[in-house]
Design a protein that fits this description.
heterodimer, A: alpha/beta, B: MetI-like fold, elongated
Amino acid sequence: MDTKNLLEIRNLNVDFKTPRGRVHALREVSFNAPKGKIVGIVGESGSGKSTVIWAMTQLLAGNGVVEGGEIYFNGKNVLDFSEDELRAFRGEEASIVFQDPMTSQIPVLSYSQQMSDIAYRQRNKSFREKIEHSKQIMRKVGIPDTEQRVYQYPHQFSGGMRQRAGIAMALLMNPLMLIGDEPTTALDVTMEAQIIHLLRSLQEELKSTVMIVSHNLGLIAELCDEVVVMYAGEVVEQGGIRQIFHNAKHPYTQALLECDPARVSNRARFLPTIPGDLPDLHIRPNGCVFAPRCKYALQRCEQDRPETYVIEGTHNTKCHLLDSSRDQFGTSSTIERQVSKTETYDSSLKNIIDFEKPPILNVENLNVRFEIMGPLQALLRRNRKRFVDAVLDVSLHLRQGETLGLVGESGSGKTTLGRAILGLVPSSRGSVEFDGRLLTDLSESVLRNLRQDMAMMFQDPIGSLSPRKTVGALIAEPFSLHRKDKKNLEEEARKLCDMVNLPHSFLNRYPHELSGGQARRVGVARALALEPKLIIADEPTAGLDVSVQGEVLNLMRDLQARRKLSYLIVTHNLPVIRHICDRLAIMYLGRIVEQGNGEMIFQKPAHPYTEALVHGVPQPDPDKRRNLVSIEGEVPSLTNRPSGCEFHNRCKYVQEKCKTLMPQEKVLPDGRTVQCHFPLIN
Amino acid sequence: MSEIASNKALESAKKDQGIKGHMSESREKLSLFLNNRLGMFGLMLVVLFFVSAIFAPYFATHDPFLMNIPQRMSGPTLEHWAGTDQLGRDTYSRVIYGGRVALKVAAIGVSISLFVGLLLGMLAGYGPRWLDNFLLLIFDSIRSFPTIVLALAAVALLGPSLELVLAVVIVTSIPGYARLARTSTLALKNTEFILAERSLGAHPAIIMWRHIMPNVIGPLLILAAMDVPVVVTIEAGLSFLGLGVLPPTASWGTILNEGYLVIRDTPWPIIAGGIPLVLTTLGFTFLGEALRDVFDPRLRKGK
């Protein structure tokens, strides 16, 4: 073992025992984590990147078995540790920051208790000393007022603060290695930037070794020194951050980087994807594990397992194409493949926005107000507000064939607005006009009938499908609900399957047997079954891998062009929305703060909040690291709106006027509307 | 947390399994059930209970009403396997026929209260707030009466009968099912798939019947299996007190009641009436617990 490496994993194999045989989740995984470096493990779901962490900390699920290999940590093999040694190892030598601070912290214990529990092995320290130490660490991770806050409970912390507390807890025992398992995935872009910044400055200060596991290429590029790329349980390529991001050799790494919408700098009609699915890991692959999806696959790739080829220093990859004795690229031995779906989309089919007709959707001053306590309760607690305004005076319109993106952080009211437009959430004031009819006046039963023309796609692809119904029944359901004649339901279901590129064999499956992308396609099929005019899509790419995101968006665009659909896309994911939206509306605390042409907003944001969002997205390029956190603080609570301009307490450009006076909506020369006293462009 | 790792691996492995994946899951449940010894024992007892009650004439050795005064209160003999009672009737045959009463009360009582409870529970959970409050008020009022006291009051008013026992059983066990159904419905009400159905324009009745019911019914069926012994003992208890099934109809409760009167002369009627009660109770309890273990994945993990 090399002394400059803190962690060395050698030929690690992990199996999971399932009723249907063994899943070979990790196969011959080897990589190093050099001392004082930040190592990123990047891969899509099912790549085994988390399994590496669980194997390393010996916290695999009950059915997981390490089938060989060594994990040297600081010179000792972790796999030989006894239970006692493991307890000392976990948390004190290597500790983990979890993805979701909401579920990884104990809700019934205050941070002081949780943190002194973590330090349980320091018997010589008194409780008071432990608390003092906890406060110190909490200050270090940027939690204000630690004197009081250390005695608070997780629910009293906001999302970003909770993740900071999670980092504080991981750092408490001064571990040799800090492991982040998707540390920013549950956070908003603006919070993500802050956490990235924090992790980087902490690492510089403590000189500790950090391992980040993530699917987010932007995060990896911003943070890491070394990268390990995993696919289907194998390490396919590893090396320095620039070697991977600028000089990737493995076709999978190249494809993955290409797919990231943040990397596609020009607005593209169709996004690149990686066609195909993950291989079934019940069977050990004979050849290269990526061969079935690889564009360059040779005959040999499907038969022989590739060796590790060293490219330069620590940069190495497992790919036959790099074998010096191989034929050159593009020789006749390349396996003929079906043309990928992306290429079958007819890019000549242009989407035409119909400017002649009046807008299909017209929302005027819509308000959604939720009651948070009953009248009696409000009487008893007089100083509290009885209502919360989730959506405030929102006006927008959407033309036929147009795509409008509704962007904002969590809590901005964007999802509520989408649901209120469809009447799924009652609106308190304002009007929604759809296709010439005033929806806000209609009764529930008339509205039910009208739902044929407007459909919604929900955030959770699998969770939005009724779990006890087959895909066939789910797809045919719109017909059985709205059509008089119930014949040919199966045939209709098959037609829809074809439309969304779903094999017919899926019709008998249940939602939990689908992958995220497949379930999303079922959702698209259901939404489109009755040929609606308007589709409201709530986070259509949430929970999907980058390689699949593109596939879903391409499908949506293709169908839009064919059927003149209008989309209202609700999302927090700016890089994705950039490629598909004609216009953008930015929401903050229930108001639209900026609205206008998408590309113009991206090039030159007018509202400081928009600017913060646009610049908040980490770029998948290690040369474009940001040194500044573009926005401080967090979204205020809806029950406690700031005075004046509601953004003033987070705004970089704040002036006295902003603190007292609410800005009116202004129309800028380029046609955008913005709610700001001092727009960033004139 | 470590679960996530294995789940991810599982999920990726699940792809392209199609309906096979689903089949193997139910097969997995079946094998789990078959390996549960207490559950299998319970199932055997339950089957015995059903078969002996339905085919009572084939199991009985005598006419349960035939009196034979000279041979009254005899112990077990080859002729009378469990002895005779104070009127010389064959206790074994009366126990077998008594099973019919128990089965009738259990089957009718549990199925009606399950169905009504499910319906009311879903209505309370999915319907408007005022309906929920109103139904909850009724459920709680019923629950606040001890079953036996309620039964006593009803009998005092209407006189003892099997139908009355049934009615009391149904009314008092509805709230249990309804509350369970309501809680599950409330949890489902705001899930995305229910919202998705609403956005498709599905009628609330369709949503409740097609999408909520299949997800709610599982725990209710298990509760029902575990409720059968309760219902059987309520019937036996009321009949024992002389408030349920009237003599000369044979029921386990009346057998116990009559045996109690002659306990100084012969213990056999009490023993013969008690054993099936104990076995049925055990059988349904074991079966219910085994079912719960199979269907509730949270309880399965530890094993």
